[in-house]
Automatic annotation (TrEMBL):
One of its GO terms (molecular function) is transferase activity. It comes from Streptacidiphilus jiangxiensis. It comes from the Bacteria. Residues 2-282 form the Glutamine amidotransferase type-2 domain. The keyword Transferase applies. Keywords: Glutamine amidotransferase, Transferase. This is Glutamine amidotransferase.
């Protein structure tokens, strides 16, 4: 399927996470340890916000770079990552589940100030696509550019109120996919880890119908890591609120990574972060 990471915290260069760690996202594009596929070479993308704050002209709109080639050979991404510094960014490497390898199918997806990326799949998507499309707000339909289940999930969530209440909107999207899958006789229609952001907060979701979701981890607080590894200067330079969420850990430091619980929504925000249950049928 795919691998992704979301970063929130002190502004850093993108290559600090995309290239430099022992098991960086670019390394994972060739040597994934926890994914369905070892290779994730069907496209790469990054989306980043220049700042957390709302600008004088309104909410900050994220920048975006997406390509169709494998991440390990993308020289434009390598150059960009060494020059762009951001306090909040997404990065994604794609392994297609059947839809074409094209730029509009590379993650993250963007609409307005929102970013969205996904690892997983809607089972037998080609059978469910028409029914699901009918639930997208008619005003949003012209904005769908690609053909993936991931982008359709984004627009369903937008239709269900993502901009007002992300956990409720994603829960409603999940419920629709599960109910539609059941009508078509599909036992386990949904597998997902999702990240979305409005530039001020990040929401991450881990869920699957079969309750055996794809892997997802969040980083330990920097002050804890600094106590565990006082010789590592990287940890001393990060703000206390810095967090990284990844499909699989970027290294093997004991105590650095924590698994996101099954059927959970995580909220990364100023102040106290949250982990809340994700039960679409509650």
């Amino acid at each position: 399927m795919c691998r992704w990471l979301a970063y929130y915290g002190s502004p850093i260069l993108l290559d600090e996470l995309l290239y430099k760690p022992e098991h960086s996202l670019i390394d994972q594009s060739k040597h994934a340890r926890m994914g369905v596929e070892t290779l994730n070479g069907d496209g790469v993308g990054v989306g980043w916000y220049p700042d957390f704050a709302t600008g004088s002209d309104g909410p900050v709109t994220p920048a975006q770079y997406r390509s169709t080639g494998p991440a390990w050979g993308d020289m434009n991404l390598r150059d960009l990552a060494g020059h762009v510094r951001s306090p909040l960014f997404f990065a994604h490497i794609r392994a297609s589940t059947g839809t074409p390898v094209q730029q509009t199918n590379s993650h993250p997806f963007r609409r307005g100030r929102w970013l969205w990326m996904h690892n997983g799949a809607i089972s037998r998507f080609h059978e469910l696509k028409r029914d699901l499309l009918l639930s997208v707000d008619a005003a949003l339909l012209p904005d769908i550019q690609g053909s993936t289940d991931s982008e359709l999930m984004f627009y369903l969530a937008l239709s269900f109120g993502l901009e007002e209440d992300p956990p409720a909107a994603v829960a409603r999207m999940i419920r629709l996919v599960e109910e539609t899958g059941a009508k078509h006789g599909i036992d386990n229609p949904l597998q997902m880890t999702v990240a979305t952001s409005d530039g001020e907060r990040v929401w991450v979701f881990r869920y699957s119908t079969e309750r055996k979701s794809r892997s997802l981890f969040f980083s330990t607080a920097p002050e804890t890591l600094h106590r565990l590894y006082p010789e590592n200067a990287v940890f001393s330079g990060l703000s206390p609120e810095t967090r990284i969420v990844v499909s699989e850990p970027l290294g093997d430091l004991p105590g650095a990574w924590n698994e996101v619980p099954e059927s959970t929504c995580g909220i990364i925000q100023p102040g106290m972060d949250e982990l809340i249950p994700l039960n679409p049928f509650a």
